[in-house]
Amino acid sequence: MKTVKKAIITDAGFASRYLPITKTIPKAMVPIGAKPAMQLCVEECREAGIEEIIIVATPNTMAKDIYDNYFHDNAENVRNLLEKQGKSERFEPVEEVLNFPKITVIEQDPTLPYGNGSPIVSAKEFVKDEDAFVVLYSDDLIFGNSDTRTLIETYLQNENAKAVIAAQEMPEKVWNKYGMIALKENGTLSHIVEKPETPDKSPSSLASYGRYLLTPEVFDYLIPSNTGLDGELWTVDAITKLAEHGDVVVAKSNGKWMTTGDPKNYFTTLLEYVLETGLVGADEITEICYNYNKEKNI
Fold it and tell me: pTM surpassing 0.70?
């Protein structure tokens, strides 16, 4: 039986919509509760049985050092201080981070063209000999279930698949914001229509987002000379090429996909997280909103 043991998590961009904070820290280290978004992606991989994770960081920044420090530094000074204060239990979340699966942090190859496919190409040497590997965009978070597990289970049930992509039903009013999936008659991927201008140009109500299971064959098409829209190297272009030569299975998510791609969506994702985890109750948020509207005479 084929196995899926490795995952690539990408965070190789400058996140200009988050400036000035992303001048200093990578966007995937912005906290969702007490954890950065990157950690939530790592936890999703761990829950699916992934044994090694390659994080691809933005080149020529402090991002690689920040990730290495977060996932590998044992923070003995913090541990010692908490022990002296009789608060050793507060160090337990750090212990959890230090016990994650093997994490290797690399920088994106700066010679590659701009585009969301370039971080994957940068990690090619780590996954080229695998049966398949999972790719997660750290912008995208899944609540309620592990898309990584769903992708792997779907692949193992369709061993001839050249790739598996996650999909979620989306309301018509937002189809113009996402890559919308067109299906072949057998239910596998035909192609993806990026941000259709009008609803009638969307081939379905299924949106694709940053969760893919890919076979190394993708590197036959994910090459620097194969740039697409706006001169960028797009992952979905390579996946569409795979679909021309075999089955790319579409797996509907069993969780809830939310994005942190911009500050507004980050806030709604954070709100979903605090409700999902019980950090704040819906009644408390309702009260805050009520008092705010009352003060503002809204």
Answer: yes
